[in-house]
Amino acid sequence: MRKKTTFFPAIALGAIVLLGAGCSKPSPSAMGTPSISVSNQSLGDNNQLTIKTASTDQESWIAIHQKENGQLGPVIGYTSLSVGAASKIKITIDRTKVSPTLIAVLRYDRGQKGTFEPDVDGPVIKNRQVIMQEFNITNHADFTKEESVKAAGLRTEFIITAKQWSFSPSVIKVKKGDTVVLKLTSSDVKHSISIPDFGITAEIKPKETKTIEFVADKVGTFKFICGMPCGVGHMGMTGTIVVE
After folding, report:
1. Per-residue pLDDT at 36 exceeds 90
2. With b meaning 16 or more CB within 10 Å and e meaning fewer, what string describes 84-116?
3. 50-88: per-residue pLDDT in tens?
4. Pick from 127-131, 173-177, 234-238: least confident
5. Do the domains 10-142 and 155-243 sit in the same CATH topology, yes or no?
6. pTM higher than the cut 0.85
7. Does the N terminus or the C terminus of the chain have fewer Cβ atoms within 10 A?
8. What is the largest CA-CA distance in the chain?
9. How far apart are CA 76 and CA 61, in angstroms?
10. Is the pLDDT score of 131 beyond 80?
11. Burial category of 239 from C-beta neighbours within 10 Å (exposed 0-12, middle 13-18, buried 19 and up)
12. Can you give the three-state secondary structure of the chain, one letter per residue?
């Protein structure tokens, strides 16, 4: 089955409605020209799609859109993409919103770093065209509206940077039932993150990335802290998780 690359004019992106989340663990290599490649594929029970290859010259996101009436529809999943090239990138999508044809769009992380902001993180444009590619879900006919699907949360990803004496971002918001993925980095000394209400404790070493995940299975406002003494401002190094 042949794949088809589609370039939509940048002006067509003005009315995009964005939602959903995904995650990936790309292996960045040398900085390269922004590009994306994806093949037709079936959607498995894990609700994950695979981007064959992608590359970028800035911190970016890959967003998966529905295709509606020949145009970009809502986003049903996304994941971060580090500078360089990556392959076999996994993105978890909302299965209930899958259309027969989907569109993968490359977007620069232009706003608050590590937080997907639909209104700010604009598409990557090359030669006055948006970098994106269409692909088909080969088993879409197997999806039926009558199918009883257990309500499940989305997979939501955040990149959190620790430094003396703060976390950035310091507030994250998710929905009850979401799988929360935290990619943790330190820009200076050794830190840790402790989220007592969800039984999470992890060490964060300088210049390394630590990934943790958990299910936000209760509603409320929950505090996270640095559990490793890191200087005079250590006691004020806190953040908040809001579960709605």
Report:
1. yes
2. bbbeebbbbbbbebbbebbbbbbbbbeeeebbb
3. 999 999 999 999 999 999 998 989 999 999 999 999 999
4. 234-238
5. yes
6. no
7. N
8. 61
9. 13
10. yes
11. buried
12. CCCECCCCEHHHHCCCCCCCCCCCCCCCCCCCCCEEECCCECCCCCCEEEEEEEEECCCEEEEEEEEECCEEEEEEEEEEECCEEEEEEEEECCHHHCCCEEEEEEEECCCCCCCCCCCCCCECEECCEECEEEEEECCHHHCCCCCCCCCCCCEEEEEEEEECCEEECCEEEECCCCEEEEEEEECCCCEEEEEHHHCEEEEECECCEEEEEEECCCCEEEEEECCCCCCCCHHHCEEEEEEC
Looking at the chain, how many residues does it have? 244
Q: Nearest to residue 165, comparing CAs of 142, 191, 184, 129?
A: 191
The pair of structure tokens assigned to 204 is 């964060």
User: Considering the domain 10-142, what is its CATH architecture?
Assistant: Sandwich (2.60)
Higher pLDDT, 144 or 192: 192
- Output the CATH code of domain 155-243: 2.60.40.420
Cross-sheet strand order for the sheet of 101-108 = 71-81, 60-68, 101-108, 132-136
Amino acid 199 reads G
- The residues spanned by each domain of the chain are 10-142, 155-243
Among 196, 195, 193, 197, smallest CA distance to 162 is for 193
- Percent of the chain residues topping a pLDDT of 90: 51
